[in-house]
Each structure stands twice: as C-alpha cells, then as structure tokens.
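Example 5.3 — Cupredoxin family protein
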Amino acid sequence: MTSIRSSAMLALALLASSSVFATGNHAGGHGHDADADIGKPGIAAKATRTVNVDMNDTMRFTPADISVKQNETVRFVIKNSGALKHELVLGTEKELREHYEVMKKNPEMEHADPNMVTLAPGKSGEIVWQFTRAGKVDFACLQPGHYDAGMKGAVSVSKATSK
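Solution (predicted structure tokens):
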C-alpha cells in the first residue's frame, strides 16, 4: 500500500511539474487573477498611446521610468538591441522576484502570458496593457543574471480624475 501511495504521489508531482515545463513554455503561475494588482491585458484598438522601450546588454531598459494614467491602455513596443536574449515582464516586485528565482532554475523557460515578451537579439515585440489601478507596476528582465544586474523599471500609474 505504501509503494502505491508513493507511486501515486510521484506521478502527481511529475504531472504538476510537466504541465508548466513540458515544452519549455511558461503560460501560467501568475494567474491573471493576480494581474488585478497590475492591470489587465489591453485591447490594441483602445490603446491611447505607444511607448517604445529598448532593452540592451548594459542590462537597462530605456526608458526605465514610465508614467501613465489609471485606466489608460498603452501599447509597449519593445526592441532588443542587444546580443543576448532579453525580456520585459510586468508585475509586482514580489511576483517578479519569485518568478526570477524560478527562471534561475529553469533558464530555458519561454513565456506566453500577455504581460510579458521574450525577445531574441535584434527582435521586437509588443505588450498591450490597461493599467486599472493607481500606484506602481514594476517591470524587469528575468533572464538569469539580468534582474540582479539591475535590468528593471517601473510604471507610475496616476490616479484617474473624476469628471
């Protein structure tokens, strides 16, 4: 009975881990319920402006500080002008730190969530995001070593004014 129970627990553990890492993709773990703290995926047609962000091998984003208004939908056009793979991930500081620890253990992990884009050298991508809450939304590159080197930034979301 003990070996059956042990086998069942091992099978469940393998099944749980393979659902996240089976193909090297990472399309969850942040749950989009958690996105309520940072906003939600935006609708491109409702974007009020475009913000161009450059990522490079000096481990910096340009710009690293972005200001938006609450409820604004922004189209971020992100370019990797470096020779290394980089990414931009929107989240809370806590979520980014936790995800970074997972990335250090699984460096080949790819992302498929709407709050993030991973780019090969010379490539561009975009994120369309609606900032629903006033406050700060962090962003970072979670490739191993990049976050520790300071590759992070913040979006300051100013409170919407009532009419």
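Remark. Helices lie at 2-21, 31-34, 93-105.
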